[in-house]
Amino acid sequence: MSAPQALPKRIVKETQMLLTDPVPGITAQPHDDNLRYFDVTVSGPAMTPYEGGIFKLELFLPQDYPMEPPRIRFLTKIYHPNIDRLGRICLDVLKDHWSPALQIRTILLSIQALLAAPNPDDPLANDVAAEWKENQPKALETAKEWTKQYASP
Amino acid sequence: MMSDTTSEDHYEFSDQFDDDFDLQDPGNFDSDNNYFNIVNMEHVKASERRTVAEIADLFSIMVPMSTILLMAYFWNREKLSEEYIEGRALAKVGLTDADLEVQRKSGQKVQCSPRTCPICCDTYTRGFQLACKHTACIKCYERYLGEKLSSGDLLSTRCLGQHDCRLVATLDDFRELSKDLESGYLEKTAASYLQSHSSSFKACPGPGCTSIIELTSSLAMLDLDQYMVECSCGKRFCLGCKNDWHLPIKCDLASRWMNINGERMKNNLWLDKNTKPCPKCEARIERTEGCNHMKCRTCHFEYCWMCMQEWSAHNGMFFKCVHFQPSAEAKHSGRATSARLKHYSIRFDSNIIDSRRDVNVRDLTFSSQQVLNKAVPTLSYTRRILAWTYVLLFYVTGSNQKTILETSVSDIESHAETLAELLAGDEQAAAPCLELSGYLETRVENLITHALETNWKLDRNSLTYTPS
Ligand SMILES: [Zn+2]
Ligand SMILES: [Zn+2]
Ligand SMILES: [Zn+2]
Ligand SMILES: [Zn+2]
Ligand SMILES: [Zn+2]
Ligand SMILES: [Zn+2]
User: Fold this and answer.
1) pLDDT at B31 over 50
2) Burial class (CB in 10 A: 0-12, 13-18, 19+), A53
3) Per the database record, which ranges form the RING-type domain (chain B) (predicted)?
4) What number of CA atoms fall less than 13 Å from residue B432's CA on the CB side?
5) Which of chain B's termini has less CB crowding within 10 Å, N or C?
6) Contact B125, B114 (CB under 8 A)
7) Residue B417: which pLDDT band, with cuts at 50, 70 and 90?
8) Quick one: pLDDT band at residue B220, thresholds 50, 70, 90?
9) Does residue B160 sit at the A interface (CB-CB below 8 Å)?
10) Choice among A13-17, A82-86, B139-143 with the minimum mean pLDDT
11) Contact predicate B254/B246, CB 8 Å
12) Residue B387 phi, psi dihedral angles, 5° rounding
């Protein structure tokens, strides 16, 4: 085992900000034994099939953060064209459009925005995206059911 | 504007290799035609700079922006032009017209009173900013752009100063930061240009070689499977797949063969290069000449180096040695393919090794320049063609065409054998050597044509064979 490295100032500052000045509808709590690993919750935005749900995510800051984007994944099952069965998220700012100037806070806001505005043209979960395009009312209904079943607080 | 004179930095292939190459590869290159040039990276960079300058001129944009757009379109000028005119090109790199105006200026280093870097959160006084003037510390910029360079991602080198700023760091900004970053950037764009033009530029796979084969448009249109080149470093390779050249078979079969044989060839599992035990007395016998007719110095047994059978069993013909007959019990078992593979592999290896060895005869015996210039390269070329013909024989199913090919192979084998014996002999039999070389050239040329033009039916077991 290598000796634990001091946490970079950037991560310390971001963590402080997340705890003292949280974003409405979002929580992010670092693990005591691994300060790069966060338990995250995002509440489903109003006027969406995810309304009323509390979605759990895990977030990890890799060694090279912020040169590398955070790794982030849904733990709660969710019916969404840009989120697959394993909870992986298709979001440009987590990949090509990542910039070190972005922060955990901005990324979590983007994810909340993705719940409000799914993009079935750039899908990760192909079957869900197909349903979303072919029979949107039914897709919304399923998303609502899943929210009730898996994401109830 | 860029200068158009680039002819100094390359030379025509035919000036250098005319005599030699004509013999090495009869029938596939006409030395009067210039199918390709051997050039260096500077030549490629000059060609890249011309493209960049043309696009910059066309749209009145700066050269660094032209470079980024061209990279985003993988150097497809037509597509870029079309989408630029339709107003869609900038969005592809996440920019707007307004950003483009700002990006006309390059970034700069700045000296400031102590402030906190938005990236590392340390206090800094030496910062860097793109034309947008959003600042981050210089260490973070150097590290960020350095990492972008090593990952080869030059399209999303975003402003570090502000998270919603879209500006990208361009060549100008890399240059402002450091000489190293600038030259790294130029290397990467040249590499991108080279890759995107892979149908006209082929980097030489020779170890340590930095030469590039530039195909003229007439060759770039053709099926490259059949074209083999020799680089100025001496490396000969196939233009289609960049592996060692493999006439008379196509790249697909050659690479299948290398997949199942590459490891063995490295380790020489089935063929100790030059030493094998005598089949009769098991004395270690080293072969020093390039022929297959062996005589054991210990027991005087005469045998064939390839099949290890008594030499007289061939009856002066190589047909028996060429043609593979699976043993009765192996025929219907899964081992049949493996046995076939071994049969053809031995012949392949042996010819490949000989094709290299025969070249060394140069230094040994003949003083006649004519013989050296003609017979030695012809023999080496013949061996190589034979080697790859055995690969073809492994993959094709039985047919009249296959029998015809086997007959040619056995005829060429025995004549190559005779030539090798003559070359290794003491008397300087120049005339027969030249005569045999002429004969082999014709026969080999016909064999290549036959192999390439026949619509072979391939053996499914051979195609799917994987050694366990
Ligand atoms: Zn910094
Ligand atoms: Zn900026
Ligand atoms: Zn070379
Ligand atoms: Zn090839
Ligand atoms: Zn012996
Ligand atoms: Zn034999």
Assistant:
1) no
2) buried
3) 113-325
4) 12
5) C
6) yes
7) confident
8) low
9) yes
10) A82-86
11) yes
12) -55, -50
More confident residue, B343 or B401: B401
CATH class of A9-151: alpha beta
Cα–Cα distance, A69 to A66 (Å, whole number): 6
What's the mean pLDDT when you consider all of chain A? Answer: 89
B117-131, B194-208, B424-438: which has the minimum mean pLDDT?
B424-438
- The answer to whether B162 and B169 are in contact (CB under 8 A) is no
**CATH number listed for the domain at residues B251-463:** 1.20.120.1750
Per CB-CB distance under 8 Å, the chain A contacts of B153 are 96
Residues B94, A97: C-beta atoms closer than 8 Å: yes
Q: What is the DSSP string of B142-162?
A: HHHHHHHHHHT--S--B-SS-
Nearest to A101 among B94, B118, B147 (CB): B118
Residues in chain B with CB shorter than 8 Å from the CB of A101 are 118-119, 136, 158-163, 165
Residue B206 identity (one-letter amino acid): G
Roughly how many angstroms between the first and final C-alpha of chain A, as a whole number? 38
Residue B325 neighbours by CB distance under 10 Å: 9
pTM: 0.67
| Strand A54-60 versus strand B36-39 pairing type | unpaired
Please indicate whether residue A18 or residue B305 has the higher confidence score (pLDDT).
A18
Residue pair B451/B389 in contact by the 8 Å Cβ criterion: yes
Q: Which two tokens stand for residue B466?
A: 């994987």
Closest Cβ–Cβ partner in B119, B161, B165 for A66 = B119
| B119 to A24, A97, A110, B332: CA distances (angstroms) | 24, 16, 19, 69
What's the rounded Cα separation, in Å, for the pair A93 and B152?
18
Determine the average pLDDT of the residues in B160-174.
Answer: 94
The yes-or-no verdict on residue B459 having pLDDT over 70 is yes
* Whether A101 and B162 lie within 8 Å, measured CB to CB: yes
pLDDT of B462 higher than 50: yes
Domain boundaries, chain A: 9-151
Q: Which residue has 């977030």 as its token pair?
A: A59
Of A90, A104, A115, A129, the active-site residue reads A90
Helices (H), B299-368: 319-322, 328-331, 335-364
The full set of domain ranges for chain B reads 42-195, 251-463
Distance CA B406, CA B409 (A): 5
For residues B348-376, average pLDDT: 67
Angle at B19 between CA B14 and CA B25, to 5 degrees: 85
The C-alpha atoms of residue A68 and residue A14 are separated, in whole angstroms, by 15
Chain mean pLDDT for chain B: 80
Two tokens, residue B55: 């696009």
Note the pLDDT of residue B138: 97
Token look-up 């399209």 returns B155
Task: Supply the Cα-derived Rg of chain A in whole angstroms.
Answer: 16
Q: Of B301, B311, B312, which is closest to residue B279 (Cα–Cα)?
A: B301
pLDDT single digits (tens) B283-322: 777 765 556 677 777 677 888 877 777 877 776 665 556 6
Question: What residues pair up with A26 in beta bridges, in sequence order?
Answer: A42
- What percentage of chain A has pLDDT greater than the value 90? 66
